Amino acid sequence: MFRAFLHEQDDPDACYALLARDAVDQVEAYDGPVAGRTVLDIGGGSGYFTEEFRRRGAHAHLFEPDMAELGEKPPDGTVVADGYLLPLRDGVADVTFSSNVLEHVADPETFLSELARVTRPGGLIYVSFTNWLSPWGGHEWAPWHYFGAGRARARYQRRTGKAAKHTLGENLFAVHIGSTLRQVRARDDVTVVSARSRYWPFLAETVVKAPGIREFATWNLLLILRRCPP
Ligand SMILES: C[S@@+](CC[C@H](N)C(=O)[O-])C[C@H]1O[C@@H](n2cnc3c(N)ncnc32)[C@H](O)[C@@H]1O
């Protein structure tokens, strides 16, 4: 995975295909084969996760609010919709999947409530996000976010001559692992099956148990949740 990330710029298709295979492997490790299941990919960008779920036989549907993120050839049946208010009835999904969206929404708790609402009781919810103090927390201006978001963003623009995609407080939010875990564990609509680093090949759950250190060492938190009966 790490080698693939190093080639994100020069070979994005291969990088994202590998990322998708890895994420769907993770879903199947917790929930069994996805073939025949209804899967929702919320905030799925151009849809490479949706395509991988479909390749494995799932009925996968992409919901993405930003037309610019969809690219030129989104998967058939893509719905332009906001994750806060999905045009779906309660409990429609066996698996609700959201990769790297939580740090882009201003109200993660409401976003999670909507993911839980559309998931059937006993269904699986996959949520991952890059936390603010991760070395990648500042996204395109990382790791300079450690010295302040405004400074890091200005530096990015100065160095690249390009406008930064993200602005803290507008489309990127400082989400932390400790507070997110406390909020999720206090919910009554989901139970936490696993809280782990998404990309670490070893000690993935251990690193998340170390307060303080986890904010820097986890890189990306993966929450595997199960929908409780209403
Ligand atoms: C970093 S991209 C992640 C895309 C893809 N899920 C992935 O992991 O590569 C963040 C995505 O979140 C989407 N997003 C932002 N706010 C959202 C919202 N309120 N509901 C659903 N998606 C949202 C963006 O449009 C963008 O596609």
TrEMBL record:
Pfam families: Methyltransf_11
Matches recorded under InterPro entries: Methyltransf_11, SAM-dependent_MTases_sf
EC number assigned by the record: 2.1.1.222, 2.1.1.64
GO molecular function, one term: 2-polyprenyl-6-hydroxyphenol methylase activity
Residues in Methyltransferase type domain copies: 40-127
Any one of the GO BP annotations: methylation
Cross-referenced SUPFAM superfamilies: S-adenosyl-L-methionine-dependent methyltransferases
UniProt keyword terms in alphabetical order: Methyltransferase, Transferase
Name of the protein described by the UniProt record: Class I SAM-dependent methyltransferase
Source taxonomy: Bacteria, Bacillati, Actinomycetota, Actinomycetes, Kitasatosporales
